[in-house]
């Protein structure tokens, strides 16, 4: 508990107190909830020491996952900034003077777990549980088909991932 920091990420007090404080800043499923995600990325970077690593991932409700979301959890679509869920748009969020890109790409293959089927109609529950049961099989098949390369793609990947290194400001 003494190492847990609780505070308002957006407050000036928090941002000043923890400026360049962390060696690694990780954010999962956060920046896509804002209209100005580039500003949110900059605030993450503010907390990172020079030489530190920033890791940000977001879910992708594009490709096949858009269809899954529309069918299973339509309300997810209105809660997210869908514009940044394209790789080229996502990558541009990190075009910052003091940030070196180490990795930016699709991540993962078909994932039905974001749709948590417990509060759905009986039909959607049954279909959802069927999809969950075949997910491992689909992953196995994809890994066999794409032996020498990763199967991540705009059509099938449920996430976008950025990894970067904060460099000294000029």
Explained architecture:
It contains six helices and four strands, in the order αβαβαααβαβ. By secondary structure, the protein is α+β, with helices and mostly antiparallel strands. A four-stranded mixed sheet has the order 1-2-4-3. Strand 1 (22-28), helix 2 and strand 2 form a beta-alpha-beta unit. The radius of gyration is 18 Å and the shape is globular. The chain starts with 11 loop residues before the first helix and ends with a strand.
Q: Any key phrases for this structure?
A:
170 residues; alpha+beta; 4 strands; globular
Question: TL;DR?
Answer:
35% of the residues lie in helices and 21% in strands. The protein is an alpha+beta fold.
Q: So how many helices? A: 6
The oligomerization state is: single chain
Helical content class: 25-40%
Strand order of the largest sheet: 1-2-4-3
Structural class: alpha+beta
Poorly predicted sequence stretches spanning 5 or more consecutive residues = none
Please tell me how large the radius of gyration is: 18 Å
Total beta strands: 4
Indicate the topology.
Elements: H1 12-17, E1 22-28, H2 37-46, E2 48-59, H3 64-72, H4 75-78, H5 87-92, E3 99-107, H6 122-145, E4 159-166
Parallel strand pairs: 1-2
Antiparallel strand pairs: 2-4, 3-4
């Amino acid at each position: 508990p003494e190492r847990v920091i609780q505070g308002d990420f957006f407050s000036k007090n928090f941002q000043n107190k923890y400026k360049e404080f962390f060696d690694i800043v990780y954010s999962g499923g956060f920046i896509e909830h804002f209209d100005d995600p580039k500003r949110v990325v900059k605030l993450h970077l503010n907390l990172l020491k020079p030489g530190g690593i920033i890791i940000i991932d977001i879910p992708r409700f594009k490709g096949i996952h858009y269809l899954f979301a529309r069918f299973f959890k339509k309300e997810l679509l209105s809660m997210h900034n869908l514009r940044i869920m394209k790789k080229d748009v996502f990558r541009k969020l990190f075009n910052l003077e003091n940030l070196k890109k180490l990795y930016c790409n699709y991540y993962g293959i078909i994932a039905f777990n974001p749709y948590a089927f417990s509060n759905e109609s009986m039909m959607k529950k049954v279909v959802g549980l069927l999809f969950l049961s075949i997910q491992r099989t689909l992953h196995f098949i994809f890994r066999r088909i794409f032996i020498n390369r990763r199967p991540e793609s705009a059509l099938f990947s449920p996430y976008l991932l950025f990894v970067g290194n904060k460099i000294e400001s000029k």
